[in-house]
Amino acid sequence: MNQKAEAIRAKRLLEIESSRHGLDDRTKLSASFFDYFDQLTDEKASGSKSNHSIWISTRHHLHRYHGLSELTFEQVDKRFLEGFRHYLQHEATTKSGTKLAKNTTSSYFNKVRVRRHLSK
Question: Is 82 helix (H, G, I), strand (E, B) or coil?
Fold first, then answer.
């Protein structure tokens, strides 16, 4: 799919998801992204154990990358996402101290990227 078509598709998906989750209001950009992500992670507990553990690990790396106790939707911009991707690819490690696998990096990044775009 070409870049323009992908952008249009992403925008339409975003509009649908935003209204479904009640996130139309631009003032909600000051809401806590951590709280929102934590809520989604908790909701995954009732599903697959492996999927839930991926959400937990993503949350762990998101907190480690940001390093502060609070993160708003407004702060999760393109620059933040690029930095998070770089962190996952080059700095993040597993519990045993090895670098994250490429697929793991993509999985973690996409959980954050998609959630950010659904919130606008």
Answer: helix
pLDDT tens sequence across 21-35: 555 555 677 889 999
Name 62's Cβ contacts closer than 8 Å, sequence gap at least 6.
Answer: 34, 37, 71, 84, 112
Contact between 4 and 99 under an 8 Å Cβ cutoff? The reply is no
∠ at Cα 13 (88, 63), nearest 5°?
Answer: 25
How does DSSP classify residue 29?
G
Q: What is the pTM of this model?
A: 0.72
Provide φ and ψ at 99, rounded to 5°.
-65, 155
Contact 108, 6 (CB under 8 A): no
CA separation for the pair 57, 13 (Å, rounded): 26
84-100: pLDDT as tens digits:
999 999 999 999 999 99
Retrieve residue 73's tokens. 């939707």
